[in-house]
Specification:
Two copies of one chain form a homodimer. Chain A has 246 residues and is of the alpha/beta class. Chain A has helices spanning 32-41, 53-61, 93-96, 106-113, 129-138, 156-169, 180-192, 196-201, 204-208, 215-221, 241-245; strands spanning 6-8, 23-27, 46-50, 68-71, 73-74, 77-78, 100-104, 120-124, 143-147, 231-234, 237-240. Chain A is built from eleven helices and eleven strands. The mean pLDDT of chain A is 93.
Chain lengths: 246, 246
């Protein structure tokens, strides 16, 4: 399985055709995927990822106003008329249970849209890492880990999370036959595994948003396998496939 | 210097504006940059990188037929009418001395063209690694290592070479403040430093071109710091800046 697994380092680093018939794990650690996983864990009915406020308002117009919440921020400040920012810590059970969360996220949405030829799209983060790994072990399809990145560049934390998934899947022994992206993610994880939280706290994201995104958000997103959620995209809505099985 | 240094993992992973006024080291280990470095070491007057045969023939039409050589291949076979393939080992002194080499290279040419806002563009490879490092230590500008990659994806060998340059620049101690791309390249190098040749021999490039590119080519390109060439792009022509100083 590791031989055919691939890792793409940003939403710009692949052709849509490259994902045809594959299982895609979309990774955007800070913070879109961590927020989705948290919202679903806390009972949200579903999450809809949108690329901007226009798309959010277009979708929300067709929904009963009590059935959804708008999450998003501009320059770190909650958008006028929105219920929540992008912080996972605001997506608590009493706020999101039973609701559909419409989440503004530029890089994550782009990665999801460019994965439209994939067979399945699953949402990955450190928070639900073991649920992802358990699922990938069971399937028989080619797997691609798509890191959302930032404006076409790689993001340290996304590639580190991809590396952690790979490390678990191959029990720490990467075969020589692994592909380039897989080796890069694995190498990064191998180097920084002992210091995930601190290394992410000095990542470009953290530096770029210093003073805007609180440190608690980042600490929270660095916790591994604390939520047994397996978010799967279906007809534009991300919902918890593990929850459904239970 | 390491704090402001950045690494881009492919020709698609940055905006042209990101390189404005910076010093770019363009890295395409297999084989474009290794071939350029070798040709210049062996006395080629200059190298012109082109993206396809049309561009090559357009440029060559304006030159005296004895002054240049065409290098390139299609599916691993020398192109009709060309003197050489892309193999660095064919660019020997008796073949290239005094000539301008017009080299067909898709990913490398794209990376060079997208770096047109840079202040300087230098050609990097394992072969001239110490010449690159010596030069970077002397300059006072922001540095970007641009890995050519393959069709927008990262390439193991290019990122590994970037990691090796960074490792030398920071004497093996990467500060926490390093940028994401820098940490990724450093992590990769840290993992595979002891086994560069073997790890590159199992890279996507080597697997993709198995039977087309000979193993000797790859072994040759994995040698570190054997050539003291500093190829610099000037008005479309790459020539040896170290050679000129001597």
């Amino acid at each position: 399985m590791i031989d055919t697994l691939d890792v793409f380092s940003s939403a710009h680093s692949f052709k849509e055709e490259d994902l045809r018939d594959k299982t895609v794990v979309m990774i955007d650690v800070l913070r879109a995927c961590s927020t989705m996983v948290t919202a679903l864990h806390n009972g949200a009915k579903g999450v809809i990822a949108v690329g901007d406020m226009d798309e959010a308002s277009k979708i929300s117009r067709n929904l009963d106003s009590k059935s959804f919440l708008l999450s998003g921020e501009k320059d770190g400040i909650k958008i006028d008329g929105y219920s929540l920012t992008n912080s996972p810590l605001e997506h608590t059970e009493d706020v999101v249970a039973g609701k559909t969360v419409i989440l503004n996220t530029t890089n994550g949405t782009k990665a999801i849209k460019r994965s439209n030829h994939a067979d399945d799209i699953i949402i990955g983060s450190f928070l639900n890492l073991s649920a992802i790994v358990d699922h990938l072990r069971k399937i028989d399809k080619e797997i691609v880990l798509v890191c959302a990145g930032w404006r076409g560049r790689l993001s340290f934390e996304d590639l580190l999370c991809a590396g952690n998934i790979i490390y678990e899947l191959c029990s720490g022994e990467l075969p020589n036959s692994a592909r380039d992206g897989t080796k890069v993610a694995f190498g990064l994880y191998d180097k920084f595994a002992d210091d995930i939280e601190n290394s992410i706290k000095s990542s470009n994201y953290a530096v770029r948003l210093d003073g805007i995104v609180c440190e608690e958000d980042i600490s929270y997103c660095c916790q591994r396998s604390i939520l047994q959620v397996l978010p799967v995209l279906n007809q534009g809505i991300i919902s918890d496939s593990n929850g459904k099985e239970q």
